[in-house]
Write a structure and sequence with these properties.
The protein is mainly alpha-helical. The protein has 2 domains: 88 residues, Helicase, Ruva Protein, domain 3 (Orthogonal Bundle), CATH 1.10.8.60; 40 residues, Arc Repressor Mutant, subunit A (Orthogonal Bundle), CATH 1.10.10. 58% of the residues lie in helices and 3% in strands. The protein has 7 helices and 2 strands. A two-stranded parallel ribbon has the order 1-2. Helix 1 crosses helix 3, helix 5 crosses helix 6 and helix 6 crosses helix 7. The longest helix has 16 residues. The radius of gyration is 16 Å and the shape is globular.
Length: 147
């Protein structure tokens, strides 16, 4: 992507449409400011990182449009270092998202009866991301056995 930056909007659109269908969330667009950040980013891990970034944004987005504050903190920090603070992104650093993210994960695990793969589908993220967040938040999935 570093060599063909003009392909990024097409790739982002493709991932966006897939995630829209997969997540079932009413997210209709990527804001211009968020797309500008995506375009300006260096993408050291290339296409996989773009897909992961959009998955993350789908989980954190609470409106109908993905905004800069919905993007991963590492991306915003890289842009802050490179170009100065990103307008509207200060909420990202306030720490108010972690409790919400933890609660979303807990609710997804409950809804999935402790199955991480199902929780990942509910959240629209990968199973590995669910596992990493469970580890970060000190959560264990317990399945109910019924007879």
């Amino acid at each position: 992507m570093r060599e063909r930056p003009l392909d990024l909007p097409l790739l982002a659109e493709s991932f966006f449409r897939t995630l829209q269908l997969k997540s079932g969330k009413d997210i209709r667009s990527v804001s211009r400011r968020a797309m500008d950040l995506l375009m300006a980013y260096s993408w050291p891990e290339n296409v996989r990182e773009l897909r992961s970034t959009l998955e993350y944004a789908f989980v954190t987005c609470q409106t109908t449009s993905i905004e800069p504050e919905d993007l991963p903190a590492a991306m915003l920090q890289a842009q802050t270092v490179a170009k100065g603070p990103v307008a509207g992104a200060s909420r990202q650093y306030s720490g108010d998202r972690e409790p919400r993210r933890k609660q979303e994960l807990i609710e997804a695990l409950r809804g999935a009866e402790g199955y991480q793969s199902r929780a990942a589908e509910i959240l629209g993220i990968s199973r590995v991301t669910v596992w990493n967040r469970m580890k970060r938040y000190g959560l264990r999935a317990i399945r109910q056995v019924t007879q």
